[in-house]
Amino acid sequence: MSVHLTHWGTFEAVSDGERLTGVRAWRGDPEPMPLIDNVASAQHHPARITQPHVRKGWLDHGPGAPARGDEPFVPVSWETALDLLAGELRRVYRDHGAEAVYGGSYGWASAGRFHHAQSQVHRFLNCLGGYVRHVNSYSLGTSTVLLPYVIADVNVLLNKATAKSVLAEQTELVVAFGGLSPKNAAVSPGGVSRHHNRGWMSAAQARGCRFVSVSPLRDDTPAEAQAEWIAPRPGSDAAFMLALAQVLDADGLADSGFLDRYTVGYARFASYLRGETDGIVKDPEWASEITGVPATRIRGLAHEMATARTLVTVSWSLQRARHGEQPLWLGVVLAAMLGQIGLPGGGFGHGYGSTALVGEPAPRISVPRLKQGRNAVSTYIPVARIADMLLNPGAPYDYNGERLTYPDIRLVYWAGGNPFHHHQDLARLREAFTRPETVVVNDPFWTATARHADIVLPVTMTIERDDFGSGQNDRMFFPMPALTEPHGQARDDYAIFAELSDRLGIGKDFTEGRTTMEWLRHLYDEWKDTTGDWPVPDFDEFWAGDGLELPLADKPQVAFADFRADPDQHPLTTPTGKIEIFSSTIDGYAYADCPGHPVWLEPDEWLGSPEPRFALQLVANQPKSRLHSQLDVGAHSQSIKIAGREPVRMNPSDAAARGLRDGDLVRIFNDRGACLAGLAVDEAVRPGVAQLSTGAWYDPDPTDPSFCRHGNPNVLTADAPSSTLSQGCTGQLTLVEIEPYAGTPPQLSVSRPPATA
Ligand SMILES: Nc1nc2c(c(=O)[nH]1)N[C@H]1C(S)=C(S)[C@@H](COP(=O)(O)OP(=O)(O)OC[C@H]3O[C@@H](n4cnc5c(=O)[nH]c(N)nc54)[C@H](O)[C@@H]3O)O[C@H]1N2
Ligand SMILES: Nc1nc2c(c(=O)[nH]1)N[C@H]1C(S)=C(S)[C@@H](COP(=O)(O)OP(=O)(O)OC[C@H]3O[C@@H](n4cnc5c(=O)[nH]c(N)nc54)[C@H](O)[C@@H]3O)O[C@H]1N2
Ligand SMILES: [Mo]
Q1: What is the per-residue DSSP string for 208-261?
Q2: Does ligand 1 have an atom closer than 6 angstroms to the CB of 418?
């Protein structure tokens, strides 16, 4: 039996002896996910890249030739492509230096430790002299910057979260801002072996635990939880939470013993709650106007939270929005006011419904990984500032207490990510992508990013190469021998960088003289020496087997239990060692869009504006049918399309008001762009909201790059930061209007390869 790991689950390969014909869920997975069906069905899709390609203008006229994204490609041999690319890398490093190369390559790539694309491209560019890198992620851009000031490094919140098994046994009330999405908990970086998304909720519910799901979508929390659904206006959670805090404060329900011993700055925050600073008491009546939630329900909920073992959990989506710091910070503050941080089943959580890894017990042994080497360049950007960087070389900007300057980028190398999936305002990104002299993309598929490159190199999928893999906080460590031959002329990223390294005279530095199998054996053997008292089989036995089950710590985790037990012995890593309800460091930065304690700040685009420019709040959340843009051509992802486009969901009342019916082809638009989508009318969507997940491959109209024929919401979203502090991405929420699409439906071009010359 061949078991294979992906970011979205583990499968057993079904093969006809030569080819992978299908997949079957791994028998160890108690809650298998249908996303695995995308893999085999996508392998030989016409959108696979079969051989290296070079954009015609670049080939004819050299670096900097105009019309990137509009021109045909010329198929070339590997020899030609690698010679051209090696020459271009030599030129850019010689004439402009490593500061002119953006090698961030943000993206999820694929499971598998050795062929992890970022590790490969970063190691390669480090051997060449370095590159401008990115910091943070689109996932947690705001959390990563904010949380260390407030409570802890974001990884502590994720990896040391209270175990789901503890929640199942101890929690009496879960208040989940952004819900507890079972679709998101399908996925974890590096892979998932056993999904435990719903089991803990059923167990808790059966014991009498209540769930409150605060979200614009009813199905953000699974039926098993039997949750109460509260749907405030999207983007207004901070006001909701402030009112909960105000009730705790005013009704004497805040735990002053906890606040005194474990936190700083409550008095400053409380005076804001009481209206002493601005004349506005942040009571439920005030919040009701903003959120649309009845004041009585807010007041009642605050009392319920104060009288139960309560978990306040905030999804990652809430911080992927303008002023995303505020609801996140308030989640910590509420949990602190309840005095339950550090108690089993109570306190604060971040992302129980955002990924599989939160609340999974971390193995006490971590698995081998490839070293990326040292980057000689210190320049970086917060990841979501990519378009700003390309459009504004030399311009200053503020970030996290620092004043930084955008570098002047000549060459962009992307391996393992898809910026034309992940970035906002794609017409603006397309403009930004005209600026570098050369864009290089390694990818298995003709993604929109590959179509906006000059040199395109076809890469293997995981099923086509030898590797091993294990997900973050996952117990299984699997061998992943290749299941099939590569498609066309596809090569591993490692093989590509090895060939380039030879041409550039750094071959020995990059490969250390090893083949892929020699690397796997070497990394494994090195690792085997570090596992201490835990016996590990030798490599050949591991390679022939069905995976190793990694050992766990003895006790299930309870977040911040040490800190609670002894805050002097186990201080937090915040500046004061305590939970910071007021941060004098952040206050000292004097950013108008993120003051020293959490507050209500009105978003730029939301339903509560006096005169909203457009009447619907688009929620651009993660797709249920795939991971991001990956394998959108696969069977499961295709099975949910409507009228050949990505589905958009809206409430029956909003559809009726626009004369729209289930299954209609619709046009979604705002001032930045427009896209087509297929309509699904659904009561699970709050009135005033439309939901279009990310990940439909960007298929721009040839004459208008702001019009996507397929349904990519990022033609509509704003390329605006969450705040000056964190510069996180804000793709989650956007105002739009939706109308019937009257014309003849245009054909999609993304499911075919681009034109060749
Ligand atoms: N509007 C809006 N936008 C968002 C979000 C949102 O909520 N709303 N969410 C954001 C978030 S949280 C994230 S994480 C990003 C995700 O953005 P990305 O991580 O960039 O998205 P993916 O589709 O996973 O891109 C991975 C790419 O790597 C390729 N690939 C896979 N395996 C390999 C390999 O072995 N080698 C190479 N070279 N390539 C490989 C895939 O084909 C794919 O093109 O999107 C962000 N964008
Ligand atoms: N199936 C699948 N799972 C995934 C991914 C995927 O692509 N596919 N991507 C993975 C990645 S990279 C990440 S970062 C995580 C992301 O995890 P999250 O960021 O938590 O996921 P989203 O689906 O973007 O958002 C979750 C829900 O938040 C709700 N929401 C949006 N705005 C608001 C608001 O203002 N207030 C409230 N209360 N709720 C709001 C939406 O209804 C949405 O469905 O998911 C991971 N899991
Ligand atoms: Mo993410």
Answers
A1: T-EEEEESSBGGGS-GGG--EEE-PPTT-HHHHHHHHHHHHHHTT-S-HHHHHH
A2: yes
Confidence at residue 435, expressed as pLDDT on a 0 to 100 scale: 98
Q: Closest Cα to residue 197, out of 210, 186, 209?
A: 186
For the CA of 140, the nearest atom of ligand 2: 14
- How far apart (Å, rounded) are the C-alpha atoms in residues 83 and 501? 11
- Nearest-atom index, ligand 2, CA of 320: 19
Residues 670-691 have pLDDT tens digits of: 999 999 999 999 999 999 999 9
Nearest ligand to the CA atom of 694: 1
Fold of 161-361+561-586: Dimethylsulfoxide Reductase; domain 2 (3.40.228)
What is the CATH architecture of 48-137+367-549? Answer: 3-Layer(aba) Sandwich (3.40)
Lowest-confidence region among 3-17, 38-52, 63-77, 621-635 = 3-17
The reply to whether ligand 1 has any atom less than 6 angstroms from the CB of 130 is: no
Closest ligand 2 atom, CA of 33? 1
| CATH 3.40.228.10 domain range(s) in the chain | 161-361+561-586
Q: From CA 470, how far away is CA 190, in angstroms rounded?
A: 6
**pLDDT digits 0-9 by tens, 24-70:** 999 999 999 999 999 999 999 999 999 999 999 999 999 999 999 99
Q: What is the mean pLDDT of the chain?
A: 97
Nearest ligand, CA 698: 1
- 557-577 confidence digits (pLDDT tens): 999 999 999 999 999 999 999
- Give the DSSP letter string of 481-531: ---SPPSTT-B-HHHHHHHHHHHTT-HHHHHTT--HHHHHHHHHHHHHTT-
Report the alpha-carbon distance of residue 490 to residue 5 in Å, rounded: 20
Say which residue the tokens 């769930």 belong to: 211
Residues 411-454: pLDDT tens digits?
A: 999 999 999 999 999 999 999 999 999 999 999 999 999 999 99
CA 71 / ligand 1 centre spacing (Å) = 24
> CA 400 → CA 363, 595, 678, distances in Å?
33, 12, 41
pLDDT score at 1: 64
Distant-in-sequence, close-in-space partners of 528: CB < 8 Å, separation ≥ 6: 536, 538, 539
Ligand 3 centroid distance, CA of 143 (Å): 12
Domain with CATH 3.40.50.740 in the chain: 48-137+367-549
The tens digit of pLDDT for each residue in 85-118 reads: 999 999 999 999 999 999 989 999 999 999 999 9
Nearest CA, atom 10, ligand 1: 138
State the catalytic residues: 106, 108
Average pLDDT on 5-22 reads: 88
Distance 180 CA to ligand 2 centre (A): 9
What spacing in Å lies between the alpha carbon of 40 and ligand 1's midpoint? Answer: 19
Q: How many helices (H) and strands (E) does the chain have?
A: 26, 31
Inform me whether the pLDDT recorded for 154 exceeds 70.
yes
CB 424 within 8 A of CB 605: no
Instruction: For residue 632, report the phi and psi dihedrals to the nearest 5 degrees.
Output: -60, -25
Confirm or reject: Cβ of 443 under 6 Å from ligand 1.
Answer: yes
| CATH 2.60.120.10 holds for 616-740 | no
Ranges of CATH 2.40.40.20 domains, the chain: 616-740
Q: How many angstroms does the Cα of residue 685 sit away from the middle of ligand 1? A: 26
Residue 630 CA, closest ligand 2 atom number: 7
**Residues contacting 478, CB < 8 A, separation 6+:** 3, 4, 5, 10, 191, 193, 468, 469, 470, 546, 547
Alpha carbons 96 and 100: distance in angstroms, whole number: 6
Q: Which residue is closest in CA terms to ligand 2's atom 12?
A: 139
C-alpha 121/C-alpha 497 separation (Å) is: 7
Is residue 246 a contact partner of residue 273, using CB atoms and an 8 Å limit? yes
**493 pocket-lining for ligand 1 (C-beta < 6 Å):** yes
